[in-house]
# Entry
Amino acid sequence: MTSARAAAWRRTGALAPASLLVFAFLALPMLLMLRFSFNSFVPGKFMVEAVTVENYVKLATDPYYRHVLGLTLGVSASVTILTLIAGWPIAQFLARTQSRHKGLLLLAVVLPLFVGNAVRAAGWMVAFGREGLINRLLHMIGLIDAPLQIMFTPTAVIVGIVSVNLPYVVLTLSSVIEGIDRRAEEAALSLGATPFETWRLVTLPLALPGLLAAGVLCFILSMNAYATPVLLGGPSFQMMAPVVADQVLQRANWPFGASLGFVLMLVTLGLTAGANWLVGRRYGR
Amino acid sequence: MTGITRRRFVQGIGAGAAVAGLSPAGSLIGAARAAGGPVVVGTWGGDYQALMDQYIAQPIIKPTGYEIVFDSGMDTARKTKLLAEHPLPRGSMDVVALTRSGGYEMWKNDTLLELDPKKMPNYSHVLDKLRTPYSIPHIYTGRVILYNPKFVKDKPTSYNDLWNPAYAGKVGVIDIQYQTTIESAAMVAGGTMSDYEPGKAKLLELKKAGVKIYPTNEAMASALKTEEVWMCIMWKARGVMWQNAGIPIEMANPKEGIVLYISDQVMPKNAKNKDGAYVWLNGLLDPTAQVQFAKNMGYNPTVDNAPIPADLKARIEFPPDVTYINQDQDYLAKNDGALKDWWDKEFKA
# Structure
């Protein structure tokens, strides 16, 4: 008993440095931000000390901010679905390959993470521009006469964020698929299941926790995407993170920026927890 | 036991120096240092800071014993800092670079020092139209119409030419220039410098005609270069820089008048090094430095004694008969947020 308690204390002790760091540099600033979100903003006077819910009321009643939140949710959901669909085959290949170049293949997946989001978005700008790579190629093979408008469209933003999130999803999924016992799949195949049935009835349910983890990671990253929507979406495409930054950095309206940030965080957390709960209930985890 | 090790010797020297520090000679050295010391200049980074370092901080300020330390970032952050540090006895910046509107806003909030022209010998050369009691105008330019003469055959004479149906879909505006865009529209729609409201309906007409909106000045430059856009409004200094970069544009002065863009530098009331700040502010007005900003950035000098070469003068200066217009800073301080809201929610939507 005593030794068990001592072990528990040791575990707690080991967690202490990390917990303290999180408390000091995450929890406390968040509490401060929560307090700021109840202050009021007077143009030219910065933040005025107050206790008011006007920022949250403005957010809830102004159709503009509801639209921004809706658009952010829509883009994040599309990105998550597309990334999971695009990421699965790569992950499965990586997990199951016997190639001696597996290390190199993994490196190829990780390599894009070495380049910052903004730089990658700049690369897409070169590809998507009116005189860009894609328009030139399409023109050369005679598919189009006039350049297509790709920059500053939702498609550009979705493609951009998918490319940013893909490595995270592939790495998460492949480690989960690697952990699935191959014999379970082989048993299904030997009992007469088609490869698709094997995937649908055996591999997919076994990989579901990993799929959920990859999906949640991808969704959170998209909800908070900043550089990609700013650079590829253009001035009229408004997602939450750039709108928060605009309030804080351009207009010095910290109270409203803080309340926007909080709502973004709560919506993301709520949806993530909801998805976790639903999947858990459905598959009895 | 008489052996002196190297460590002991060094310690001994250290103690001797500490004693010397307490002596009258030591305090004299201290006083001499206080006359110099660091001067913290909050400013935009990039080319602007690099030029200030190359042509003011190094050649003009360094020999006086002051050391210039740049604190670079966005102007909104500097304004926030000024307001947040206002109650403190000592602020973190000695000089702050702001736009004219930003400076006015901070002056109204009682954070800035009223400057003493006697402490800046170069001040007597500052152009009258740019003077305020609280700021040093560093560089200025005016708003003009940029157009591509290959497509726009008749040189524009008024902001109204942006609404010419012949150029529908070939006119661009810039997201971060929302304020001046609404202002320009107001100038041809019956508005004034104190009332931009009529500009809103006028801009919605432009939106209907298929105006293109670009996020930044640089994006507009590339649209002009690829001939995606034939006409826009812009600061003349930028136009000069873009011409230097080979972008095919000419510039036209709108008959409604030339609205001035002024980049100011101000001193917070709680600046630590006020003497150093005055030396810096005086340096900003130095004619040799002013010439460099004209050459490298296309801005007009704010003093009357900068020896600008004739060919450059012809490109950056305005003809003598134009009317200069100053923005109504009171109006902007109160309405800028609402203008941005309208721009985001109605115009860009």
Notes: Chain A has a mean pLDDT of 91. Residues 2-36 of chain A form the longest helix (35 residues).
